[in-house]
Amino acid sequence: xxxxxxxxxxxxxxxxxxxxNLGVKEDDLELYGNYKxxxxxxxxxPKGKLILVTAINPTAAGEGKxxxxxxxxxxxxxxNKNVCLALREPSLGPVFGVKGGATGGGYSQVxxxxxxxxxxxxxxxxxxxxxxxxxxxxxNHIYQGNELNINPEKIVFNRCVDLNDRALRQIDVALGExxxxxxxxxxNITAASEIMAILCLTLSLEDLKQRLGNILVAxxxxxxxxxxxxxxxxxxxAILLKDAIKPNLVQSLxxxxxxxxxxxxxxxxxxxxxxxxxxxxxxxxxxxxxxAGFGADLGAQKFLDTKCRIANLKPDAVVIVATVKALxxxxxxxxxxxxxxxxxxLSKGIPNLLKHIDNIKNVYKLPAVVAINQFTTDTExxxxxxxxxxxxxxxxxxxxxxWGKGGKGVIDxxxxxxxxxxxxxxxxxxxxVEDTVEKKLTDxxxxxxxxxxxxxxxxxxxxxxxINELKFDKLPVIIxxxxxxxxxNAKLLGAPKDFEIEIKELQIRSGAGFIVAIAGxxxxxxxxxxxxxxQKMTIDNKGVIAGLF
Length: 549
Fold this sequence. Notes:
Elements: H1 3-9, H2 15-22, E1 29-31, E2 37-39, E3 49-55, H3 65-78, E4 83-87, H4 92-96, E5 104-105, E6 108-111, H5 113-117, H6 123-143, E7 150-155, E8 159-161, E9 171-173, E10 183-185, E11 187-189, H7 194-201, H8 205-213, E12 216-220, E13 225-227, H9 234-240, E14 248-252, E15 257-260, H10 275-284, E16 287-291, H11 296-311, E17 317-322, H12 324-330, H13 343-363, E18 368-373, H14 380-391, E19 396-400, H15 402-405, H16 411-421, H17 437-449, E20 453-456, H18 458-469, E21 477-480, E22 500-509, E23 514-519, E24 538-539, E25 545-546
Parallel strand pairs: 3-16, 3-17, 4-15, 4-16, 8-11, 17-18, 18-19, 20-22, 21-23
Antiparallel strand pairs: 1-2, 2-14, 5-6, 6-14, 7-12, 9-10, 12-13, 14-15, 22-23, 24-25
């Protein structure tokens, strides 16, 4: 059966029952039908254990990080542990593009999967509207006389839409206005919007309003910064986000509670769900299982260095997801022959996994276990090779059959994670936030990616000058780069050596509270593939959807 057929075959529990089992009071729920709700009580007292699920660099073979996250949580449920998931919301871009949704797969899914993968509770639409309201205020201010003396050529805040649309990467605005100022603009995908990052990093409505006001939107003719609060728009933006700030409660196929909230990509944004949802899950549950986007060089790095720093969180254990197929691709195997045993390619690809283990254990000083997301074509020789090589690094690799068996297929992994949570760890960040921006970027590139250093373009050097003059140089940094490689070149698979990370530009996210470094050919607006996933979807007269994974 397909994922959606499996999801539709399961009778869901009422969301009020899920909330009651978690300990959420009925008065703290805002119902969106029978199977979705928002939680409107932000009395956070995080006391539970925090488990991060990450992965090797993704490949066309798929790694199943979210599927393992859901299956692992169900494994905890099977062991009668008090557990809650904390996941990101899917973006419509990948849903109708090529990557797919973000609700897991097989018998390890969060549901209702169609709703979560589509409009859900409207959070993405609210973020898009708040983003574009700010853009409309900027252009209207210029049209109405430009009291702030905004330089139309130095507007740094862009429009967004929650779709993959490469035609919007560069546009001209105000073409139809007689007195308008025609200027060049662009759309980013909503997952890359600073509003998305702000929502994911805020802790209250008051904090949200302050962060929205602190967004750098432009420079004036004297090259002085102009912020959203100068336009008087941050309160209106917060009004659009008043419901989006509340975490969404859903469930797994067996009724494990899941808070699905916020959805920044990890390749072009910081890749983590909201701090509110994570801390709320840790408040109600003894164990919180969360995931961070793409490979550990992106999602886990940003989770650990940015989210944990801002939220004052300390993970208790890390799960690194890998598949035999993906490791063979990293080792140079032909993608049409991945079902055949190939010990040579697997041996050459395993260093990618080992680099991520090394980062988690030796850079961040956290206990880690490898989850081998099993496929039926994996051979005993291949599985044993992965286990043996991982053990040499002082970690365990445990086979997980979450797609076919759900929580029952991951009991051994769940027990190992529980054991890891009881061990002491000496969590460290990969860089000192008080260092220069260039030093922080160099530390990430050399320690986490394995690069020999970074190289700044002339544009990046000019951006760095602005950052230093505005005294934003002590902010955390995140790097937007390809997810497919530890480097900034998508074709360099495995664990490449002797490469530099080219930083093309630096963007100030003063509302979110970090600096974004654009590396290599990374774009903030993805495009659709030749055959988009949306072409294969159908809906019948009864509203039943097919082709959605």
